[in-house]
Amino acid sequence: MVTIRSNARGTGNPDAERPGASIDRTIRGNQEANQRTGERVKMAQDLDKLTQEIQNSILAEERKIYSEKVVELFLNPKNLGQIKDADGVGVVTGPCGDTTQIWLRVRDDKIIQVRFLTDGCGPTISCGSMLTEFVKGKGINEVLKITPDELTLSLGGLPESHLHCSLLSVNTLRAAIRDYLASKREPWKRLYNVRKPSL
Ligand code: FES
Predict the structure, then answer these.
(1) E strands, 16-137, where?
(2) Ligand 1 site, residue 172, Cβ cutoff 6 A
(3) What confidence tier does 184 reach under pLDDT thresholds 50, 70, 90?
(4) What's this model's pTM, rounded to 2 decimal places?
């Protein structure tokens, strides 16, 4: 008599897979994938939290040194960028080796648009931001009267070691105005592109 031994899967074939095994595998695979995704999300959240903590501690240190206005403006500066075919351009490098550039669009001796860029420190960004906001819509003669001290005061003060940053911004603005006035006197130089920004 021939005896057919039934295996655990009930198919009679010892190599056959238990019914539902592939579904179990898929579920297990999905669970592991979900777990890995969850771990990655947690790592990203931990990293975000750490970054935020570091930023907060840096800002807390900055606030001990600089006024709230200075911190606010170097975090969110206004008028960053350049102006194509500007009417006046100033480029000045300060004693610290940092450079600021200011571009002006002028109509009837009134500044209608102004942009700046700098590779300087945070306070210099604040100075550029404050100064460019202030001069928008103002006449050239009025703007030429602005002093570094006034700029420093409007920012709630600067540490002694950073007073040259407001000087750099004001000097750059004056250079841009000189450039505008020179171009106004000799407009043909702009056509031949021989006029260089004042330094
Ligand atoms: S511009 Fe150089 S330190 Fe501020």
Answers:
(1) 88-93, 99-107, 110-118
(2) no
(3) confident
(4) 0.73
